[in-house]
Amino acid sequence: MALTASSDDQALLLDLQALDTRRQQLDHQTKGLPEHAVLVELSKQAEVLRLTFAEQSGTTEDVTIELSRVESDVAIVEARIARDAERLQSSSSVKDVAAFELEIAALTKRQSDLEEIELTVMEKLENANAALAATTAQLDTIHANIGESEAVRDAQLSAIDAERTHTQARRGAIASVVPGDLLALYEKQRERYGAGASHLRGGVSTASGVKLNSHDMQVIRAAAPDDVLLCPESSAILVRTAESGL
Q1: Is the pTM for the entire model greater than 0.85?
Q2: At residue 96, does pLDDT exceed 80?
């Protein structure tokens, strides 16, 4: 037996379809927020910077250890020079004096060499710290940008969720007054073909955007107002109104 429903009940399906279309748009909008791509890119940049930071931190630590070792060597040489100078002052042996003077000269040369090395290592450490500071600043900027993008994304998602909730509530209210068999057919066609209802406006099916041919229009004109028809182009329920051009 062919399904029938009043014109008013059938017209409710257009409101349902509009709300279902809006829900799909909201889902697409949720997935397509530009902040998603921005956050992915920022996360990639942050990961690269974290690896760079770890490498630079290791370099800084190595250079710091190297500097400590050189400073320790310098301190040892200085202590030996001070000790030999003290012995030189208190020695009365010409042989010992000569030996102390030779050792002090060698130690002084060693001290000079170590101090040059120390300056070089200090410069390396300064450069390493500068590079580390620059990477830290970049990471801070990236993290700030991530925070800002997340805030924008969350605000947009919140607005979308609020509209989705409102849309769902309106849909539920309309669906509750649509006859059960008509609603079941609507849901079936929407699940199968993507659209549950199509408005026939000026001879054009809105679900397909196609103008129906003369034969189809004759069939539609011959149907009773409460007959439930399916669109020959989209297979959605074809809703006829005063705008249908019948």
Answers
A1: no
A2: no
- The rounded distance, in Å, linking the Cα atoms of 12 and 6 is 10
**Residue indicated by tokens 């010409």:** 94
DSSP structure string for 86-152: HHHHH---HHHHHHHHHHHHHHHHHHHHHHHHHHHHHHHHHHHHHHHHHHHHHHHHHHHHHHHHHHH
pLDDT attached to residue 1: 52
How far CA 146 is from CA of 33, 43, 56, 135, 154, in Å, comes to 15, 8, 23, 16, 12
Structural element, H or E, at residue 238: strand 237-240
Mean pLDDT value of segment 39-47: 97
What is the longest distance spanned by two Cα atoms in the chain?
137
Both 167 and 46 in one domain: the answer is yes
47 and 166 in a common domain = yes
Q: Which of 134, 152, 175 is the last residue of a domain?
A: 175
